[in-house]
Amino acid sequence: MKTKSVNKERYKLCPNCGNFMSISEQDTYCYLCGVKMIDSCPSCNEPIIYPTSVFCPVCGKKLVALKNE
Ligand SMILES: [Zn+2]
Ligand SMILES: [Zn+2]
After folding, report:
1. Residues 8 and 22: beta-carbon distance below 8 Å
2. DSSP class of residue 31?
3. Which end of the chain is more exposed for a tag (fewer CB within 10 A), N or C?
4. 6 vs 19, 30, 48, 65, CA distance in Å?
5. Chain Cα centroid distance, residue 35
6. Is 57 strand, coil or helix?
7. Rounded to an integer, what distance in angstroms lies between the CA atom of residue 8 and that of residue 30?
8. Ion ligand 2 — residues with CB < 5 Å
9. SS3 call for 6
10. Pairing outcome for strands 20-22 and 11-13
11. Separation of alpha carbons 24 and 37, rounded Å
12. If you measure from the C-alpha of residue 44 to the centroid of ligand 2, how many angstroms do you get, rounded to a whole number?
């Protein structure tokens, strides 16, 4: 059964290196590479709920640029 939780954890992701932190952190930029963090999918605006996301689970767009490609 699907229940919608309003307290779903959200994360910010660095689209460059995949670094992540909780949405409650104040950081706007990645402390590893200085790129602006994203807190939702740039394509469909879906909030990021998986800290290790590489692709958006809703629209399939890439969220993090992988170095080894
Ligand atoms: Zn980074
Ligand atoms: Zn998306």
Report:
1. no
2. T
3. N
4. 24, 26, 14, 29
5. 13
6. coil
7. 22
8. 41, 43-44, 46, 56, 58-59
9. coil
10. antiparallel
11. 13
12. 4
42 alpha carbon to ligand 1 midpoint, in Å?
16
Short-list 7, 9, 2, 11, CA closest to 52: 11
**Contacts of 58 by beta carbon, 8 Å cutoff, 6+ apart:** 41, 44, 46
3-state secondary structure of 36: strand
Name the E strands within 1-69.
11-13, 20-22
The single-letter code of the amino acid at 29 is: Y
Per-residue model confidence (pLDDT) at position 30: 97
Q: Are 51 and 38 in contact (CB under 8 A)?
A: no
For the chain, give the number of residues: 69
User: For 24-55, how does the pLDDT look when each residue is reduced to its tens digit (9 = 90+)?
Assistant: 999 999 999 999 999 999 999 999 999 999 99
